[in-house]
Amino acid sequence: MIQSIKWRGQDVEASSVEEDTINETVYLYYSEDIKEVDSRFKENTTIYAAEEDELYWAAIHTWASDPDHGVGDILVSLGVEVEYVQENDDGVAVVSFSEELYDIDYHLPFNDAFQEQVGLIMMEFGYESTQILVNGEEIDAPLFVGDKITDRPFKLHEDRKEEYEERN
């Protein structure tokens, strides 16, 4: 079975036939309610892609396009797309979202959950630092009201993963 997906802003065909893909099982991090710390959970998820470097995009895309959790519901409702995920020259995971990210009426709980969950997913692939971009460009001012997401990469402590309840 072949399906069309968006990858790096382009429509591409992705095969769901396992022989044509590589896969990796990683945790994806979610919040049922972004206002409640106790609603955070992680799910072991197998991600499929045609090439290894596409696994990163596929993981962030899977997380961002899931409307059944607090962050994904907001991203999906506004049509936010994951443009690309790649490593820069400094070994930092760079995650670029579409300009619709600017349309979100941000408040601190979303801000924290969004940044933390993107960073934790990239940690699953061995990245210590993550940088969030919009339309492939560095953010020249705080993205969210009262925000920590700016033009610099950020790091999370490995212990943050343990703060999420495991579900499957």
SSE map:
Layout: E1 2-7, E2 10-15, E3 22-31, E4 40-49, H1 54-64, H2 70-77, E5 82-87, E6 93-97, H3 108-124, E7 129-134, E8 154-155, E9 165-167
Parallel strand pairs: 4-9, 6-7
Antiparallel strand pairs: 1-2, 3-4, 5-6, 7-8
Please explain how this structure is put together.
The two termini are 25 Å apart. The chain has one domain (2-163). Strand 1 (2-7) and strand 2 form a beta hairpin. Residues 1-9 have low confidence and may be disordered. Strands 5-6-7-8 form a four-stranded mixed β-sheet. Strands 3-4-9 form a three-stranded mixed β-sheet. The chain contains three helices and nine strands, in the order E-E-E-E-H-H-E-E-H-E-E-E. With 168 residues, it is of the alpha/beta class. 21% of the residues lie in helices and 32% in strands. The protein is globular.
Tell me the span between the first and last alpha carbons.
Answer: 25 Å
Give the integer mean of the pLDDT values.
82
Helix content: 10-25%
The helix/strand order is EEEEHHEEHEEE
Give the count of helical stretches. 3
Protein name: GerMN domain-containing protein
Organism: Geomicrobium sediminis
Summarize the structure.
It comes from Geomicrobium sediminis. This is GerMN domain-containing protein. It is built from three helices and nine strands; from the N terminus they run ββββααββαβββ.
